[in-house]
Hints:
The complex is a heterodimer. Helix content of chain A is 19%, strand content 26%. By secondary structure, chain A is of the alpha/beta class. Chain A has a single domain, classed as NagB/RpiA/CoA transferase-like (Rossmann fold, 3-Layer(aba) Sandwich). A 5-stranded parallel beta sheet of chain A has the order 1-11-6-3-2. A 4-stranded mixed beta sheet of chain A has the order 7-4-5-8. In chain A, a hairpin with a 4-residue loop joins strand 4 (95-97) and strand 5. Chain A is globular, with a radius of gyration of 20 Å. Chain B has a domain at 405-457. In chain B, 51% of the residues lie in helices and 10% in strands. Chain B has helices at 10-18, 21-43, 48-64, 66-79, 90-103, 115-120, 122-128, 138-145, 162-173, 182-199, 225-231, 252-263, 293-298, 312-316, 318-323, 334-344, 361-365, 372-383, 390-403, 406-419, 425-428, 449-458, and strands at residues 83-87, 108-111, 132-135, 202-205, 209-211, 216-221, 235-241, 245-246, 271-275, 283-289. A 6-stranded parallel beta sheet of chain B has the order 1-10-7-4-2-3, with helices on both faces. In chain B, helix 2 (21-43) packs antiparallel against helix 12 (252-263), helix 9 packs across helix 10 (182-199) and helix 16 (334-344) packs across helix 18 (372-383). Chain B is globular, with a radius of gyration of 25 Å. Chain B starts with 9 loop residues before the first helix and ends with a helix. Chains A and B meet through helix 1, helix 4, helix 5, strand 8 and strand 9 of A and helix 2, helix 3, helix 4, helix 8 and helix 10 of B. Strand 8 (149-153) of chain A pairs antiparallel with strand 9 (271-275) of chain B. The structure holds iron/sulfur cluster. Iron/sulfur cluster is lined by residues 262, 307-313, 336, 365-368, 370, 372 of chain B. The site of iron/sulfur cluster (SF4) has 15 residues of chain B, from helix 14.
Amino acid sequence: MNARETILNALKERREAPADRPLFEKEPMRFDDLSEAFATALEAAGGEAVETEEVSAEAIAGHFRFEGRILDTRESGEALSRRDGIGLVIVEGAFGVAENGAVWIDPKERYPRELLTLAENVAVVLKKGAIVATMHEAYERIDFSGISYALFMAGPSKTADIEQALVIGAHGAIGMRVFLQGR
Amino acid sequence: MSGRCPPVDHAKNAASFTADAKRAHWHDEALWFVRQKRDRAAKSVPEWEALRETAEAVKAHTLKHLGYYLERFEERAKANGIEVYWARDAAEHNAIVARLLNEHGAERVVKSKSMLTEECGLNPHLESLGIEVTDTDLGERIVQLAGDHPSHIVLPAIHMKKEDVSRIFAEHLQTDPENSDPGYLTRAARRHLRRKFLEADAAITGVNFALAEEGAFVVCTNEGNADLGTALPGLHIACMGLEKILPSAKELGIFTRLLARSATGQAITTYTSHFRKPRPGGRLCVVIVDNGRSRLLRGEYAKTLSCIRCGACMNTCPVYRRSGGHSYGYVIPGPIGSVLAGAREVATYASLPFACSLCASCDNVCPVRIDLHKTLYREREEAIDIPCYAGKKRLLHLMSWVLQRPRLYGLLMGAMRFLLPRLPRPLLYSRFNVWGRDRETPMPAPRSFRDLYRERRSR
Lengths: 183, 459
Ligand code: SF4
C-alpha cells in the first residue's frame, strides 16, 4: 500500500459523506455604523481609514511619506512587473469587515501578488458601502471559483517577536491606509 | 532507579529556567499580558461562547468524516492545479519535500512558520542535503540563528530577552552589539530577510486551514512572511497535518474570528491568505502528513486533534508561564503539548501531566473547547505506572489508606499541628520537604477544621 492508501485505510470508518454539518446559527454582532467600526478596528491594527472622494494616485500618495515609485494597479502597464524600489502600491479592495478592519484583496492575476508585500506602503481603495459586519458575512460574499491567491489584510505588517514590543513593518508594508469612497 | 526515569523531567528542566528569577518573572508577566489581551478581545464579541461551541462541533464533525473530507480536498485541490502528496510519517514527509525541492533545483528555501515541519525535523534534514533553509518568521529566525528551538508555538522567541537577540544579531547580521532596541533589531532583520526572500528558489509554509469544498488552504501571519515568501519563487510547498481540514470556506467565518483573538488578542491576523491555484508558471504542492495522527484519532485522546495551535492554553497556564516552553522537552509545550506528548509516548513524557495544577484555565480559554485538564488528569493515571514513579505511587496508596481512616487521620494531623511549629528550621527546610523549597511552609492553624465544626454543631 502506498502512503495515500495506508492513511485513508486507517480512516476507513470516516469516509462516509456527511448528511449535514454543524453551522453557526446565532445572530452575530451588529454595528450601528459599519464604516466607523471598520475605521476603529483598522486603527487598532495599525492602519488608517480615510474617507475621501479624491482617489487619484496623486491624491492618495499625499497621504503617505515614502521614497520610490508609485504603482497604481488600477492601471495596467509595464511597470507592474518591476520589483525594486516600490514606495507605494495602490490596489482595489473588494469589501471590508467592520469587526476587524480587514479588507479582501484579490489581485486576480491583474497584477503580481508580490506587489502587496514588496511595497513599503499599501493603499487600498474601497467603496464605503462595501463593508460587512463580521467574517461570517465576509465568507458568504466570496466566490472562490475565480480565485488563485487572495487575502484579508488588516493593517500593515507587524511583529512583536522581540520582547513582545510591537514593531510595525516586519516584512511587508510599513504603512497601510484604506481610502473609503462614496456613500 | 534513575535509569528507568523519564528522560524528560519537567521539574528539573524548569529549575534552570527559574534560576534566573528576574527573567522568569518577566516571562510570566509577558504571557499574562497576552492572556489579558485575549480576554478583552473575547469579551468584545457577545457570541464568543457560541462561536467556541460551534468550532468544537465543526472540528468533531470534520474528524468524524476525516477520510471523506481529505479525499474531497484532494480531488478539488487537484482540479485547481495543486499537487497533493501523502506522508505516513516524518521521514516520508521530509523525503517528499526534499524530492520536490530537488526536482526544482532549489538551493535556497524560505520557510514560514510551521509547527509540523518542526515536529518532522525538516530543517536539519534539508540542511544535511545541502539546502539552505531560512525561517522567515522573526521569532523563528532568532531561534534558528541561535541554534535553539521555539519555546512557544505563536511566540517562538518568548524565552529570550532583547539583549540576547542583540547579541545573536550582532554575530550573524553585523548589527551594533550595544543596540538592543526592538525597532532597530526588527529593521535589521527586515533587510536581512528581504534579501533571503529575493534570492529564494522555493517557499515552504504551514497550513492553518485546508478547505475541502474549495480545494484551497489558508495561512495566517502577522508579518506577511508567508505571502512574500510564496509570491516570488516558482515552487510553493505547503505542509499540513491531516487534521487541518475544514468542510468549506463557510466555516472560516467561525475560525478566523476565534484564532487571532485567542492567540494574541488581535481581531484578526494581519494577513489571512487564501491559496487556491499555483501562481502563473509555478507549482503549488500540498503534503498531507499523518505521523501518528490517525492512531491518535482512534484512541481516547482524539479530541486533541481539534487544536488550532493558537497558544492560548500556554499563555494562561500558571505552570507554563513560570517554567518556560523548553522545560517540556517536546516540540509543542504547555497544556496541549503535555497532552500530545503523553498520547505519543507515556514513558518518555511521564513528568508532563504532573506539570499541571489542574486549575482548568486552559479548558476555559481553548477556542475549540478541548478538555485539556481532564485529559492531563487521565494521563497522570497512566504516567504513575512507570517504574520510576513506583515510590510516588506507593506513597499515594498510603495516603489514600490514611484518608479512608478518619480517626487515624485526625491523630496524625494532631501530631503535625504539634510538631510543625516546633521543628527546628534546618530540619523543616531540609531537602526532603519539597513544599518548603523557595517558600515558607504554611503553619497549621491551632485548631482543626473538624474540631471547630464539631463545636459549632453542638452549639
Ligand atoms: S489546545 Fe486549544 S488553547 Fe491550546 S493551542 Fe490548541 S486550540 Fe489553542
